[in-house]
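Q: Structure tokens for this one, please.
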Amino acid sequence: MSASSPTSTPAGGPRVFQACADWARTDGLVWLYILKAIAAALLALGVAMKLDLPSPRTAMTTVFIVMQPQSGPVFAKSFYRLCGTLVGLVVMLALIGVFAQQPELFIATTSLWVGICTAGAARNRNFRSYGFVLAGYTAALIGIPASQHPDGAFMSAMTRVAEISIGILASGFVSAVVFPQYTGELLRATVRQRFSSFVDYVSAALGGRVERPRIEATNARFVADIVGFEASRSTAVFESPDARMRAGRLARLNTEFMTVSTRFHALHQLMNRLRESGSTVTVDALEPYFREIAPLFDKSGEPVLSAADAVHVAAQLENYRATLPRRVRETRVQLEADLDQQGKNADTRAARLLDFDTATELFYRFVHEMNEYTATYASLAVDTHSREKWVARYEPKTNLVAAGVAGLRAAIVMGLLATFWIASAWPSGANLVLTAAATCALASASPQPARMSSQMAGGTMLASVVGMFLTFGVFPHIDGFPMLCVALAPALAFGVFLTTRPAYMGYGMGYCIFLCFLVGPDNVVQYNPAGYMNDALALVMSMIVTAAAFVVLLPPSAPWLRKRLLANLRGQAVHACRSRWLGARGLAGLRNRFESGARDLMFQLHALAGNDAALRQDTLRWMFATLEIGNAALDLREELAAVKEHAPWRDAAEGTLKATLKTVSALFERPDANRHATALATTRAAIAACQGVLERIVQDNAPRETRHRLQRILSHLHFIRTALIDPQSPFAAYLNQPTDQPRTPPGANHAA
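A: Here is the predicted structure, written as tokens:
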């Protein structure tokens, strides 16, 4: 025992230190956030009381509305809250001035304004939507109580804005000064983790070690990463000059990740189709290239993680890409010789070469896009870089009809409750109406708004019980602001803790916000049990009515919304085939809107599917089909647009190419068996036409660039055709259905 004691004691020290470090990185951050939130709330309350504002509780409530674990979201949310508050203030003063003597018209116009703001909140994303929420909620918060005393409306509005501003400043001050947690640090960790995860996925997929379920799960995670990354990037710019200096590169990194992940998935899917169709000679010719990719992502045998080390990877990819065209041409010559030696007929020989050309074109584009992505990642190692000059941004796509329904629902709920208030003359009717406005707007941004509203109602009921104990059991026995803080802190800590647990976030939000509303002391404290009970009942009733409205009035979880969003997702492929190239960015802008729009809609559909595995799988298949065929259509249009001079070959092939784009877009617009067969037939005709043109220009000794352009066009057409007959795609259901069109034999993946 004595011999082992000296070694056991030192071993225990590192273990304790490691345990403490792990706690500090996990639960420690949660408790730090709880302490910061409580400190900010009490600071806002104290300042508002010191300034003798009429309702200090508003300042404290504001803290729990804007407080976030990281500083960036706090600053962003505060900025948009202040903007929304000022807009709501101006609108409400105008409405009070016009309809001060007509309460019915005032309530109707206020309901309409809240509905418009709720629709705007549903249409926008991240904290921009919060500005719309506050523009509507502030109008109700200021206007409804002030409408009962129009002569004091302006002063009431000014003091309410002052109280909200104090809450915003207190949140920002505590978040930035007390152990600040920066979104920029989270972004750096996310960028590093995503790069290494994607490299691992590429290496495993090219090595044939990835099954279909893992492909779907990985791509679903990538979609969530892309949407979450954009949300974090948009808030990080509020934190520091360093984040603003890299904002363009971070936006570019997200865009390039979307592009390279789409390219790689298209390549991987094509190789799977070639294996299933028995094109082993093509697969064997390409396998050596795939084995060369994984070592390019290493530096001295170690995986590259940091941006500084990525410089080495970018250089290796650039050198590899420079030698690729020559090596591919040599491999193609060898493949032609092998096919001749095997005695393949002309059709089979042409089909295998087309398979090879399509796969190598996708491979070359993947290497190019991966090189761009890696170079942008490497540029983050320095403060300034030429790659910062990037104007493309992630562009979310929210269904306009769904946003309109959310606004209409909010207006209806508010109108019904206001009618009840006027008819009953309930003293707490004002709280009933304005709380409904806030709940409708806040819950509309949630994937499950009815559940969120119900949870908020539960949290408010709990806050009512706790608040009654504090108001009538504790406050009469304490004196001074320090004792008030001691009494409030434990009750507030419980609610903040609930907000840190995703499953109970709605309960925590309702508890924190409305505990402050019910319990937060004013400078002139009134002990009115009847008024307290009426206010608590009004709060809970408004949330229950709102939850019922989400269930009854065109519920967002109903099949109609999924159908609309799925049509929007397919519509991205329609835009890729038809839309004009607007603005100076041209094709780059169109491709960026296509990529980000498809993934944003996928993210919404995935959240809507919940735990339904079948719906999730169906959504992923539509996303894959949209991205694969949409990108191929954009590539096809790019090749055609790049031909500036009058080219006879273009005149011969352009008609069939445009027909292909037209029929493919019609298929995505309204899928059915006939349109699927038509799209296949026109694609087959375009391939045949382009092959005929290619044979003629080869005989005429046309320039190499012309031949290569036609070969690339053929590759894009061939890829579209293989995607349309992929047994894993949503179009597979149409392959065996009777149609009016002649059909290619099942399993054929080339132009016969």
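A few notes: Strands lie at 298-299, 302-303. The chain has 27 helices and two strands.
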